[in-house]
Amino acid sequence: MSRLARPAARISTGSVTVARRLGERSTAWVRRGRRGDLTGWRASLGCALRLAVLLFGLYLLWRLVRAIPNIMWLLSTVWIVAAWRAGKPAVDGVATPAEPAPGPPPAEAVRGLLLDVMGDADGVHLRTVLAHLQEHGQWKDRTVTDLRARLAQLHIPHDRGVKVAGVPTWGVRRRDLESPSPAAAEETSTEASTAA
């Protein structure tokens, strides 16, 4: 192995990491443009605008490089430094094990969270729940649509006609949360039939 192989591998690994991070951040920034209070194509207008801004920025960068080719030296240096830092190997060549990702919370925990956010009201809008989660460092870069999909997976009833302060939109009603979920009802009926 030549003496340049190790630094080249570090820059190569770091370049992949930097490119992935840039892609993830760009995607997250564009995704945050989606409006949870609108539906259909109007909800994604913010995403389209942000994507247009990104593409316009890339076009301006390309025009700048075409006008001043020596700027590539600066851009290459910045990229290599970022890749060098991102490609730093683990201590003593041993990769530290990543913490296992916590599993999704069970339906009853989510029901409890929804009731807590709801307080004394008869219902809560999903955008309010999403804002609460994001204030506490969870569900970053997620939308109301993602929350609706998660509630559907957990068989937690929600619909678009929930009125809070006279405004109807996607939300959850207290009476739906306090009644047993279809999944829990199935488990109860299965246990009763096996006990008999």
List the helices and strands and how they pair.
Elements: H1 5-31, H2 45-67, H3 71-86, H4 107-118, E1 123-125, H5 126-135, H6 144-153, E2 159-164, E3 167-173, H7 174-178, H8 182-195
Antiparallel strand pairs: 1-3, 2-3
Helix pairs in contact: 1-2, 1-3
Structure, described:
By secondary structure, the protein is mainly alpha-helical. The chain contains eight helices and three strands; from the N terminus they run H-H-H-H-E-H-H-E-E-H-H. The chain has helices at residues 5-31, 45-67, 71-86, 107-118, 126-135, 144-153, 174-178, 182-195; strands at residues 123-125, 159-164, 167-173. It has a three-stranded antiparallel β-sheet with strand order 1-3-2. The longest helix is centred in the N-terminal third of the chain and has 27 residues, at 5-31. Mean pLDDT is 81; it is low at 92-101 and 187-196.
State the secondary-structure class: mainly alpha
Q: Report, as a whole number of angstroms, the end-to-end distance.
A: 71 Å
Calculate the mean pLDDT score and round it.
81
Strand content: 5-15%
What is the overall silhouette? elongated
Rg, alpha carbons: 25 Å
Q: Major beta sheet, specifics?
A: 3 strands, antiparallel
The total count of helices amounts to: 8
Low-pLDDT segments: 92-101, 187-196
Strand order of the largest sheet: 1-3-2
* Total number of beta strands: 3
Helix content: 55-70%
Helix and strand element order? HHHHEHHEEHH
